Amino acid sequence: MKRTLHSMAYVLALILVIGALASCQKAPTGTPDTPVPEFTGFTVSDLQNILVIYPEYCSDELFRAGKTLCDAIEDKTSIRPTYRSSYVDGTSPEYTEAEYEILLGVCDEREESADAARSMRVKDYGYKLVGKKIVFFGASDAMLMEAMKSFTERVVNVCTSDVDSPFYSYTMDYLYEADYDMDSVAIHGTSIHQYGIVYPNKGTLSESKHASRLASLISDKTGYALTVTSDKSLPDAGTKWIRIGHTANEDADSATDALTDGQYRIATDENGNISILAGDISGYIGGVDALLSMLTDGGKTANVQITNAIEGERASNQLSIMSFNILTTKPDEARINRVVNTILNADPDTVGLQEVSPYWMDILKARLGHIYGYVGEGRDGGHNGEYSCIFYKKDRFELLESDTYWLSETPEKVSSYETSAYRRIMTFAKLRCKSNGQEFVHINTHLDHESLEARIFQAGVLVSFAEKHAGLPILMTGDFNCVASEETYKTVTGAGFTNAALDAPVAEKKATFPGNGKVIDFVFCTDSVYPAEYEVIDEKIDGEYPSDHYPIFLRYEM
Based on CB atoms within 10 Å of each CB, which residue in 3, 42, 312, 409 is the most buried? Predict the structure, then answer.
């Protein structure tokens, strides 16, 4: 009889809690259609046996958010659940999977969390009961923390300290679904989220960047974050693949004849895997664009069927860019000729120059103005102080926008960061290709040569400015006065830029400043820029070098 009364009390309390949730909480955008599970939920007393599990290699931010959740549970119930990492060694009790757990994202050895995350879209989040575990899911730390916040509001804050009262029931499962351009995308009837994108580990045509671009564009349209990996270490079998180039996991009969420049082929195998093959970088750009068009040009839903190989061709639009510190020292006529001829011989479509004094600027405008337009301002304002100017071919580009900013706390006025030896600036040009309408941004700069603190701050100003043009191809040239191991460099690459010298299939690995044998000049680019050939120009003219820096030169596609 007592057991019956206790069960009735539990059910009644559960109904009251659910009623309170329904009347006081905002309804979720979406709720899972879940059948009644065998195990239906936890009481407050169960918290004594529940472990809150964070991923072993999670960020500090996610770790702290998990601790905050435990604090909230303790404040409300006077019971603090055990908080530990997902590491499991199979022997030690403290490193053994527990029967009751709250999983904060995808955790090692917990298939429940992996299953919950597989179909998540990038802006969705939630939590649900899977077996005897409450699983939080989200495609990023930010979304997982949103799930924790919702759980605190909807579950923790409405429970009581009565040990026999309900804490969580499967009816409290919650899913927030954001709005996306497309509701569903499938290939041969299989949802796109069940595909991964694979590229050859030793590819020579920027296959990894094509794979990343395809994944990013699919995510933008559908919200699904596809796995992108090289064929060196593929995940377990079961995933369908979109292959960019010849990869180790392709079937023998998927090999194709060599494709010429600009050509691409999209084919499928008997298992539903897709292959994009091309003859050069331009062909891969065309192949990725063609597949993306098939996937996303059908309205809110799409189910792509590729029964026969699809062939096409994309006209190449290769461009070139140069970065050149010309040495500000007032030159004689011989060195002027060496600098000007170095630029004319390389024939870049755009060139970012550093240490350009007003004297030099007047010379370059006079000697190069018949070919190049130019933008920039001296670092002391107007025609005063060194320029970090950009010259661009007038016959190839239309100038849409340009300006110069100071790398300081007040970028829009003549100023300097406190520890910088000199005022430092950046100049940008937003250009449109006259041949095909493609728009892009060229940023050129020269960071401080003495203060590490100043360089790191100045790099932060650069990437903050670049964020304003997100979505356009961006190339950043300059004398960064740092090597790749320095935090300055990592500030730029951490913002999504890559070093073109490392990405280009053909590249010379040489110092750019022979005085110390180091690489301190760079061309950085975003994912929608495809380096093809990188060169350090270390040639003498009339027996002398034009400057104390070697210019660097890049051919690329967009």
Answer: 42
Looking at residue 256, its pLDDT comes to 53
Higher pLDDT, 312 or 234: 312
User: Taking every pair of C-alpha atoms in the chain, what is the biggest distance, in angstroms?
Assistant: 107
- Report the topology of domain 184-313: Chitobiase; domain 2 (3.30.379)
What is the model's pLDDT at position 239?
78
Of 232, 233, 229, residue with least CA distance to 212: 229
Among candidates 397, 462, 382, which has minimal Cα distance to 429?
A: 397
Query: What ranges make up the beta strands (E) of 297-413?
Result: 301-304, 310-313, 319-325, 350-354, 372-375, 390-393, 397-406
**The CATH classification of domain 319-557, taken from the options 3.40.630.30, 3.40.50.300, 3.40.640.10, 3.60.10.10:** 3.60.10.10
Residue 519 structure tokens: 């690489």
What are the structural domain ranges in the chain? 2-176, 184-313, 319-557
Angle at 246 between CA 244 and CA 247, to 5 degrees: 85
Give CA–CA dist 290/264, Å, rounded.
9
101 neighbors 53 (Cβ within 8 angstroms): yes
202: buried, middle or exposed (CB in 10 Å: 19+, 13-18, 0-12)? exposed
Measured between alpha carbons, how far is 95 from 416 in angstroms, rounded to an integer?
Answer: 53
State which H helix or E strand residue 443 sits in. strand 439-446
User: Residues with Cβ < 8 Å from 456, sequence gap 6 or more?
Assistant: 487, 488, 491
Least-confidence region, from 69-83, 165-179, 234-248, 376-390:
234-248
Q: What's the CATH fold of domain 2-176?
A: Chitobiase; domain 2 (3.30.379)
Rounded to 5 degrees, φ, ψ at 221 are: -85, -40
Model pLDDT for residues 164-180, shown as the tens digit of each residue: 999 999 999 999 999 99
Neighbours of 5 (CB within 10 A): 9
Residue 359 CB contacts under 8 Å (≥ 6 apart), including other chains:
330
pLDDT in tens, 201-217: 888 888 988 998 899 88
The span from the CA of 542 to the CA of 79, in Å, is: 82
Q: What is the pLDDT of residues 334-374, one digit of tens each?
A: 999 999 999 999 999 999 999 999 999 999 999 999 999 99
* CA 123/CA 137 separation, integer angstroms: 11
Helix pair 207-222, 281-296: axis angle to 10 deg = 20
Q: Is the dihedral of CA 92, 54, 491, 231 positive or negative?
A: positive
Query: How far is residue 161's CA from residue 425's CA, in Å, rounded to a whole number?
Result: 60
Reduced to 3 states, what is the DSSP secondary structure of residue 150?
Answer: helix
Q: Average pLDDT for residues 18-34, to the nearest whole number?
A: 42
Tell me, yes or no, if the two domains 184-313 and 319-557 fold the same way.
Answer: no
CA distance 513 to 133: 58
**pLDDT for position 37:** 80
Structure token digits, residue 6: 């206790």
Which residue has better confidence, 217 or 8? 217
Alpha helices in 420-538 (DSSP H): 452-467, 487-493, 500-503
